[in-house]
Amino acid sequence: MKVLANDGISKAGEQALKNAGIEILDNRVAQDHVINFINENKVDVLLVRSATKVRQDLIDACPGLKIIGRGGIGMDNIDVEYAIEKGLHVINTPTASSKSVAELVFGHFFSLARFLHESNRLMPLEGETHFDAMKKSFSKACELSGKTLGVIGFGSIGQEVVKMGISLGMKVIVLTRKPKTKMLNLEFFDGQTVNFEITSTNDMDAFLKEADFISINTPKTNEYIIDTPQFEKMKDGVYIVNTARGGVMNEVALIDFIESGKVAGAALDVFEKEPNPEVLLLMNPALSLSPHVGGNTVDAQEKIGVELAEQIIKIKETIQ
Predict the structure, then answer these.
(1) Family, per the entry (predicted)?
(2) Which of 33, 67, 108, 255 gives 267 a disulfide partner, CB atoms 3.0 to 4.6 angstroms apart?
(3) Is 108 a catalytic residue?
(4) 10-residue block means of pLDDT along the chain (320 residues)?
């Protein structure tokens, strides 16, 4: 069996595949040449992340392909249903990067609450000449502890965000399409564990009125979850972080509500026009920005590679 890890795979995942007698091709093939490469090299497994697209034309043109794997959660760059209809196995790693994404959420929350995103830009330029003025302008920071954290989405990432919020002493509320109850387990360094039963709500109006900090952790949507009507119902001075997908929040409306003061600050790791975000977003001092790196930690990539390898090895045993 041959595996093309076109968007890369961790060393641990690569070694696990090799130990199972599976050949790994770590070539980086341009999208226009993927079909020819797969057929010429008799590739059985195509592994991707977000860069390589696996659409119907590729699936139809590569009859020897047996498995398509996505390193991560979202599958919007793969025509999953069509692939399954054609008899292919489609795998992903829905929980491997959850902690990494959740930590980025709070990295942005802390940055916004303490003006770190702005002071890091200004200190090299004005720290020597306007130190006292900046100190004064950044004095209206706030703590996260004791505030209300609103989490939109209750999947694996949403659950990790909830657990981190609880550990910081935040009150937590969760919004889902239908109310759900989940038991979350917080584990500590000395072996102690604490269980929290969390029930989500589907009352968006009540959710928006109560949340001081909002984290969006949903799959890709066909329409905005957060648009002008939702911004209008939020608390004054709310903070928002989107690490989900571009297009779940109206970025133009976001800028308007930042300028009006309704939104104190926001963070975007994903963008509607990715990989070419609007300049107005990139230049806005109230925004904390990162280039879609939610799951991009060494730790997450190790887990992703190993989980993909384990699934491939298991499938290999069933099809041979």
Answers:
(1) Belongs to the D-isomer specific 2-hydroxyacid dehydrogenase family.
(2) 108
(3) no
(4) 94 95 92 96 94 96 97 90 96 94 98 95 93 93 97 97 98 97 96 97 98 96 96 98 96 97 97 94 95 93 95 89
